Amino acid sequence: MFGFNRAKKSLVAVAATAAAAAATLLGAPSAAAAPQPVVGGTTTTASAYPYVMQITTASQSQFCGGTLVAPDKVVTAAHCMVGRSTSSTRVVGGRTYRNGSDGTVAQVSRIWIHPSYTSATRGYDVAVLTLSSSMPYTTAPYVSASQTGVYAAGTTARILGWGTTSSGGSSSNQLRTATVPTVSDSSCSSSYGSSYKASDMVCAGYASGGVDTCQGDSGGPLMINGVLAGIVSWGNGCAWAGYPGVYTRLTTFSDLVTQQINS
Ligand code: ARG
């Protein structure tokens, strides 16, 4: 939901990349199809991915994603929750469409935001919600602190969400999913410079772009080998060549998240 404020120093590079991407699109008819949300993805259902939650306002308007990791605990991004009250927030499970009224709506009794969080590009982009009632859906396992091998460059990761279909586009009514390869720290550092903090973040996406999470997907899962390994956090535009999506590196926060889930 929140745009990434690109670093001033990368403005020129960004403009050049965007122009190159536009030129590529013009020259390649097969790539000219309308961008799809979770850009480049396919539609899916909440029953196929029962742990995927909509984070909504009190009037059930979805603005972020989340992952059910225990019947009454949802992992999401800190930047989704900052400034929000429990009473203005709901978690909706089992709902494939943003405009649906099915599934299960839970109130939120507690919002934990990583105490060091200030902004997504500075890291610590993790929050845990405690629900007032349990969700009747299968939970997702999440990475342990020692499972750092899941981020090996090139590993297939699954992204999910109701986010926009392109940078600055509109949200998808139906849940979408796609897979993207994880990106090495050195490669992601060359994309984002010092904004990329390998201790707290991991990148995923194709070098040529085309598939990515986007605005409104934030907080949602990055699943690797069947475990929740990352949280949609930020990126420069969406699906742009040379700018992979940046996800919270959950191994770094696994012990803290475990504490929250057990408290
Ligand atoms: N910050 C965005 C949100 O709040 C997510 C952006 C993800 N961007 C990307 N290129 N992967 O929804």
TrEMBL record:
It is found in: Secreted. It holds the Pfam family Trypsin. GO terms for biological process: protein maturation; proteolysis. It comes from the Bacteria. One of its GO terms (cellular component) is extracellular region. The keyword Protease applies. Belongs to the peptidase S1 family. This is Serine protease. It comes from Streptomyces ruber. The lineage of its organism: Bacteria, Bacillati, Actinomycetota, Actinomycetes, Kitasatosporales.
